[in-house]
Amino acid sequence: MEASALTSSAVTSVAKVVRVASGSAVVLPLARIATVVIGGVVAMAAVPMVLSAMGFTAAGIASSSIAAKMMSAAAIANGGGVASGSLVATLQSLGATGLSGLTKFILGFIGSAIAAVIARFY
């Protein structure tokens, strides 16, 4: 009986117990929780890196980059200028100013949700 209580105590110390509406408990392993947290962090960190790699930088659009090609195509399509609110303008704004707190929260939430779905299969 004593070993069972010790095992139960160890399990609850390395697992998070979530109460479900029915009153039963679902035990989530620490590895699954870590996967969800890491998914959120990766999503928040990846977006600025991808924007920079595409050429949307704080100094403007980098020459000979994917961003430059996108800007050229948008300018040709709009008769010589990039329309405000377009995809290119929005991405450049994000590249120049960074992500707002709300955007980081949304990206973290989405990244965590995707990681949670993936973690269910492992």
UniProtKB/TrEMBL annotation:
<dbReference type="InterPro" id="IPR038213">
    <property type="entry name" value="IFI6/IFI27-like_sf"/>
</dbReference>
<keyword id="KW-0472">Membrane</keyword>
<comment type="similarity">
    <text>Belongs to the IFI6/IFI27 family.</text>
</comment>
<feature type="transmembrane region" description="Helical">
    <location>
        <begin position="73"/>
        <end position="95"/>
    </location>
</feature>
<protein>
    <submittedName>
        <fullName>Interferon alpha-inducible protein 27</fullName>
    </submittedName>
</protein>
<dbReference type="InterPro" id="IPR009311">
    <property type="entry name" value="IFI6/IFI27-like"/>
</dbReference>
<keyword id="KW-0053">Apoptosis</keyword>
<feature type="transmembrane region" description="Helical">
    <location>
        <begin position="33"/>
        <end position="61"/>
    </location>
</feature>
<keyword id="KW-1133">Transmembrane helix</keyword>
<dbReference type="Pfam" id="PF06140">
    <property type="entry name" value="Ifi-6-16"/>
</dbReference>
<dbReference type="GO" id="GO:0006915">
    <property type="term" value="P:apoptotic process"/>
</dbReference>
<keyword id="KW-0812">Transmembrane</keyword>
<feature type="transmembrane region" description="Helical">
    <location>
        <begin position="101"/>
        <end position="121"/>
    </location>
</feature>
<dbReference type="GO" id="GO:0016020">
    <property type="term" value="C:membrane"/>
</dbReference>
